[in-house]
């Protein structure tokens, strides 16, 4: 299987088990996080941007004051691939511990 292959439903279920905070929404996985301030939220987006560039894989990001929503899917595959799971893990690793 290459990194661009769409994951099966059971692969997606397995991946979500190891991805606290992420849920499935259609063909995407989604996580919303809240930062203490607007500048902190923008700084976090910048860190995610660096990870996305390094992976050449990019989330859709919704910014509402301190609240950020990340949506991941592989547009070229029309669904979820290992690239999305990888980036979701990277985003989780950038978050402070709960
Ligand atoms: N990011 N989420 C996402 N999905 C893609 O298909 C994608 C991407 N970032 C870069 C990218 N594709 C390019 O590598 C290709 O379109 C060339």
Automatic annotation (TrEMBL):
Entries under SUPFAM superfamilies matching the protein: PCD-like (SSF55248)
Molecular-function annotations in GO: 4-alpha-hydroxytetrahydrobiopterin dehydratase activity
Keywords of the record: Lyase
Enzyme Commission no: 4.2.1.96
Biological process, per Gene Ontology: tetrahydrobiopterin biosynthetic process
Residues annotated as signal peptide: none
UniProt cross-references to InterPro entries, sorted A to Z: PCD_sf, Pterin_deHydtase
Reactions the enzyme catalyzes: (4aS,6R)-4a-hydroxy-L-erythro-5,6,7,8-tetrahydrobiopterin = (6R)-L-erythro-6,7-dihydrobiopterin + H2O
Pfam families: Pterin_4a
Protein family according to the UniProt entry: Belongs to the pterin-4-alpha-carbinolamine dehydratase family.
NCBIfam families reported in the protein's UniProt record: PRK00823.1-2
Protein name (database record): Putative pterin-4-alpha-carbinolamine dehydratase
Source organism (scientific name): Rhodococcoides kyotonense
């Amino acid at each position: 299987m290459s990194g661009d292959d769409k994951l099966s439903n059971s692969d997606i279920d397995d991946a979500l088990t190891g991805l606290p905070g992420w849920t499935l929404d259609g063909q995407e996985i989604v996580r919303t996080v809240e930062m203490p301030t607007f500048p902190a939220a923008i700084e976090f987006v910048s860190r995610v941007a660096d990870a996305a560039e390094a992976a050449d894989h990019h989330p859709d990001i919704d910014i509402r004051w301190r609240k950020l929503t990340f949506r991941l899917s592989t547009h070229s595959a029309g669904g979820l691939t290992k690239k999305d799971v990888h980036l979701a893990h990277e985003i989780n690793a950038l978050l402070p511990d709960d």
